[in-house]
Amino acid sequence: TADVTERSAFFAEFNARLNGAFIRSFCGDLYGPVQGRQFDVICAHPPFVPATGQNMVYRDGGDTGEEVTRRIVEGLPAHLRTGGTCVILCVACDTEVKTFERRARDWLGEVRDDFDIVFGLEKILSVEEVIESIRKRGQQIGEEEARQLFARLRSHATRQFVYGALVIRRYSEPVIQEPLRIRLAPAGRAADFECLFAWRHHCRQPGFCEWLAKSRPRLAHPLELTVRHAVRDGQLVPVEFVFSIEGGFQAALRPDGWVVPLLARLEGTKSVQEVFEAARSADELPQGFTLDAFADLVGRMIERGFLEVALPR
């Protein structure tokens, strides 16, 4: 463990000894005390409050609150081993140009393709909400300082703030997927991220499309389907279908009505291709809807947790 102040470094070691854990506690600026070393796990909870005056090292994170978070990510190519994972619990910015997780990928520099990135989003805050929170927490900033802070954040193209867990894993082969944002549920655990990374890694393997067509996914146990009815031409008819799930992650999907019975047949005994062919033979599919399109939908639903499938060992 490392901290920039001696007092914090001391109490980290004190707490570890109090709990019977052996650690080495360093005092220094981020990776400074561990230059030349690499790790399997890097975990951080950096200060993330936009600075409003005299800097508080335990609290402030520069002009937008991201300075420390960015430096942690920038140091991963030098300090995170292949196969290793970095977890950062933080507040950061979505800009008018890119989401936080896409910006974090850029911070990794020339070796960004070695890393897979998932951001578990817990909360979204407007710029106004963040400034009001700073004022309420006793930082004694007046109206003029609040206006200046707002202008500064807008000058950095800040659209909104996001709070959650940024999880980054390093691989030996290129990662072709874009960074993923997923809604983190209160019950979310490290194991949920592990399953998600395992799926994304499997998607990059040779022959994945053929494997997916032959796979036998099933509807996830916590899945719910909500159907909204409305009167049309004097008849009460279903007009909206919503699949929702809340396990480690939260997700919702509003498919067209004809998709619902198709997905309902994925109960773990029939392959994706078999379900598709049966629906095509029964003339239940719209013109031009292909097996590849159905498999792509199934893959996205597996990623979001609506469907479950056993991966090859």
- Give the averaged pLDDT, no decimals: 93
Considering DSSP H and I runs of 4 or more, what fraction of the residues is helical?
Answer: 25-40%
Spatial strand arrangement across the major sheet: 3-4-6-5-7-11-10-9
Distance from first to last alpha carbon: 34 Å
Shape: globular
Structure description:
This protein is α/β, with parallel strands linked by helices and 313 residues long. The protein has 2 domains: 38-184, no CATH class; 213-308, Outer Surface Protein A, domain 3. It contains 11 helices and 12 strands. The strands form 3 sheets. An 8-stranded mixed sheet has the order 3-4-6-5-7-11-10-9. A two-stranded parallel sheet has the order 1-2. Strands 8-12 form a two-stranded antiparallel sheet. Strand 9 and strand 10 form a beta hairpin. The mean pLDDT is 93.
Short key terms for the protein model shown above:
alpha/beta; Outer Surface Protein A, domain 3; 2 domains; eight-stranded mixed beta sheet; two-stranded parallel ribbon; 12 strands; globular
What is the strand and helix layout of this fold?
Elements: E1 2-3, H1 6-18, E2 26-27, E3 39-44, H2 67-74, H3 76-79, E4 80-95, H4 100-107, E5 115-125, H5 127-136, H6 143-155, E6 158-170, E7 180-184, H7 190-203, H8 208-214, E8 218-219, E9 224-232, E10 235-246, E11 249-253, H9 259-264, H10 272-281, H11 291-304, E12 307-308
Parallel strand pairs: 1-2, 3-4, 5-7
Antiparallel strand pairs: 4-6, 5-6, 7-11, 8-12, 9-10, 10-11
Helix pairs in contact: 5-6, 10-11
Q: How would you summarize what this structure contains?
A:
By secondary structure, the chain is of the alpha/beta class. It contains eleven helices and twelve strands.
